[in-house]
Amino acid sequence: MADAPILVEVERGRARITLNRPEKRNALSLALLEELHDALWDADADREVHAVIVRGAGKSFSAGYDLSEAPRRDGRRGGASYRGARSFDDDTWQLERAQRLRMVLFDMHKPVIAQVHGHCLAGGTDVALLCDMVIAADDAVFGFPPARDLGALPNNLWLYNVGPQWAKRLTLTGDTITGREAAHIGLVLKSVPPSLLEAEVEGLADRLAQIDPDLLAANKRIINLGLELMGARTLQRLACENDARGHLAESARTFVKKAGEKGLKTALTERDAKFGDGRARVIGPELRDERGRLKEG
Questions:
Q1: What is the strand order of the sheet 177-178 is part of?
Q2: 21, 51, 60, 166: which could form a disulfide with 25 (CB 3.0–4.6 Å)?
Q3: What is the DSSP string of 109-161?
């Protein structure tokens, strides 16, 4: 279905799962995450599938969470007694529910490749970095701009990919880097020219399709268990509570109020304007013009 939040196709030993909200740059709604969760577990159960590719329709992989979506009350009745977002614990609970849906990428037995083009921002990075390997277009854009005023990261594997200094440099400012730069610091496996991205990902899937799925699972799981021994899974759980803490900051309350009064697009534009082009530079000095834009050369 063209209006389905995800699209799934299975062939030649792979499942391709496409985030399918291109009109919203594949913003992650709870409904999309629920369908993604179910599709991933289904692919994991299918003996014909050796690996999964997660990609985005349209111009972006994903620009983040759908901030226009109100917290959904749980329970069959959905009445006032069910959780919304009234307290710190309500907020944490909502964040943990969404995280459980994403963690299938880490927990499932079969390898997952993220095929990233365009914007991979905020929640888009939460999905991509839970995948086993990320292959990006050279000109893809990675970052977590909401860390500037809205909260912390509700998933955090940045530390395990790039180390503490680059994790801090990028998440403390919300600045972005390109796919090529992301590959240089280890945030992604590699980057390639945009015209070669699909072929690069499919070529890797071809190689994985030649391996017994049980062996793929054994080799994925021992590495992920190593990450767990380094605290990675515990950190993901703590990230939800830490994000709820971030939501208590004065800047977060101000952002929510401004978005309600002026609209979400205006609030985002006003937040990001003072950061110029919002870019970090991985190699070389960050010389900027009077508008805060990086100077080339």
A1: 119-121, 141-143, 177-178
A2: 60
A3: SS-EEEEE-SEEETHHHHHHHHSSEEEEETT-EEE-GGGGTT---SS--HHHH
Domain membership of residue 78 (yes or no) is: no
- Phi, psi for 53 (deg, rounded to 5): -110, 125
Q: Residue 208's domain is classified under what CATH number?
A: 3.90.226.10
| Contact (CB, 8 A) for 65 and 122 | yes
d(CA 162, CA 178): 14
53 forms beta bridges with 16, 113
* Residue 134 domain boundaries: 6-68+84-273
C-alpha 41/C-alpha 144 separation (Å) is 27
* 3-state secondary structure (DSSP) of residue 233: helix
Parallel, antiparallel, or unpaired for β 51-56 and 190-192? unpaired
Report the pLDDT value the prediction gives residue 74, as an integer from 0 to 100: 58
Tokens 């399918």 locate to 20
- Residue 282 is assigned to a structural domain of this protein: no
Cβ neighbour number for residue 212 with a 10 Å cutoff: 9
Q: Does some domain include residue 1?
A: no
Count of domains in the chain?
1
**Strands of the chain, DSSP E:** 6-11, 14-19, 51-56, 112-116, 119-121, 133-137, 141-143, 177-178, 190-192
The model's pTM? 0.93
| Maximal CA-CA distance, the chain | 60
Half-sphere exposure in the Cβ direction for 108 (13 Å, CA): 29
The helix (run of H) or strand (run of E) holding residue 95 is helix 88-102
CA separation, residue 19 to residues 35, 55, 217, 277 (Å): 10, 6, 24, 27
Show the low-confidence residues of the chain (pLDDT under 70): 1-2, 70-82, 84-85, 297
pLDDT digits (tens, 9 = 90+) for 43-87: 999 999 999 999 999 999 999 999 887 666 555 555 666 676 679
Does residue 289 lie within any of the structural domains? no
